[in-house]
């Protein structure tokens, strides 16, 4: 990018941080996508015309549809900012490619598999071993509250307060939301706190900080293996998906689920209606008595 473009991108990212509360990771992703887009535009990215942008579709033909969609979205927001701030008069983003792609359904676990994970975790925790008590608390919060991995590992030590059946979680974009805590999760965390290291800031400490997302991933996979479940089928995010899908199957309202998960757009939450429908179709095809009957000639 030209120095002028870099200055415009810096102003745009300052706005995203101040007004949209974008995280450092989000800002870095925007900078990268805008930089890559700028490589395909001759001249200035900030002053590019619709004709300049129309050629990006062909240049991005070999990229994954999700990558094209993400870069196009970054450019649309960038040009909207330039227009809003009076830095240009027109918005050329209509010329950007709009890929169509099917959003993949999230992987989930059956309720019976979740029960096996809890049984194995509870059996280990019965020994009173600190690591086992910590792991059970992690599992209870992942599946019982649907926390994201980053939200869970970064919980402060005082996140759970006596008589308060919920957590205040800081999620994506530094937005806060209330997350209910089940009686089971509360009991598991209390037992963990009885023997957890003192004098630390984090609920799940490790060294001078908290356990990492990578370490949480490893812990969850080991717990799956203990329950006789293929480790490559399980991750913290799969447990979050299971939380959402099983709640929806139990009759939870979609708007309530959106709030619990911290989704900014209900369209993100609606993916779970497709998951539930897909599971129902599979159930009919495999368990209905007619599924095993041959067709008559």
Task: Give an overview of the whole structure.
With 297 residues, the protein is mainly alpha-helical. The chain folds into two domains: 93 residues, DNA polymerase, domain 1 (Orthogonal Bundle); 175 residues, hpI Integrase, Chain A (Orthogonal Bundle). It is built from 14 helices and four strands. A two-stranded antiparallel ribbon has the order 1-2. A two-stranded antiparallel ribbon has the order 3-4. A hairpin with a 5-residue loop joins strand 1 and strand 2. Helix 1 runs antiparallel to helix 2, helix 2 packs across helix 5 and helix 7 packs antiparallel against helix 9. It is elongated, with a radius of gyration of 24 Å. The model has no long low-confidence stretch (mean pLDDT 82).
What overall form do the CA principal axes indicate? elongated
- Outline the low-pLDDT stretches: none
H/E element sequence: HHHHHHHHEEHEEHHHHH
Radius of gyration: 24 Å
Write down the CATH class of the largest domain: Mainly Alpha
β-strand amount: under 5%
Distance between the terminal alpha carbons, to the nearest Å? 68 Å
The residue fraction in helices comes out at 55-70%
Which oligomeric state applies? single chain
- For the secondary structure, the number of strands is 4
Q: How many helices does DSSP assign?
A: 14
Question: Would you tell me which CATH topology of the largest domain applies?
Answer: hpI Integrase, Chain A
């Amino acid at each position: 990018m030209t120095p002028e473009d870099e200055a415009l991108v810096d102003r745009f990212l300052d706005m995203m941080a101040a007004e949209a509360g974008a995280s450092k990771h989000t800002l870095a992703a925007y900078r990268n996508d805008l930089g890559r887009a700028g490589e395909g535009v001759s001249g200035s990215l900030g002053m590019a015309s619709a004709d300049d942008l129309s050629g990006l579709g062909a240049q991005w033909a070999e990229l994954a549809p999700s990558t094209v969609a993400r870069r196009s979205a970054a450019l649309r927001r960038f040009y909207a900012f330039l227009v809003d701030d009076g830095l240009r008069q027109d918005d050329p983003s209509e010329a950007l490619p709009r890929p169509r792609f099917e959003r993949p359904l999230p992987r989930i676990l059956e309720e019976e598999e979740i029960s096996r994970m809890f049984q194995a975790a509870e059996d280990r925790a019965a020994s009173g071993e600190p690591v086992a008590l910590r792991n059970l608390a992690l599992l209870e919060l992942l599946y019982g509250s649907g926390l994201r991995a980053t939200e869970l590992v970064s919980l402060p030590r005082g996140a759970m307060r006596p008589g308060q059946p919920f957590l205040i979680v800081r999620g994506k974009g530094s937005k806060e939301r209330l997350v209910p805590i089940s009686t089971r999760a509360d009991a598991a965390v209390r037992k963990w706190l009885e023997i957890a290291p003192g004098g630390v800031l984090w609920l799940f400490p490790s060294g001078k900080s908290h356990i990492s997302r990578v370490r949480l991933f490893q812990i969850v996979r080991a717990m799956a293996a203990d329950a006789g479940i293929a480790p490559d089928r399980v991750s913290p995010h799969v447990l979050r998906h299971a939380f959402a899908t099983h709640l929806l199957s139990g009759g939870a309202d979609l708007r309530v689920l959106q709030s619990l998960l911290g989704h900014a757009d209900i369209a993100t939450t609606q993916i779970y209606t497709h998951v539930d429908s897909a599971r129902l179709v599979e159930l009919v095809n495999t368990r209905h008595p007619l599924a095993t009957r041959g067709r008559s000639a």
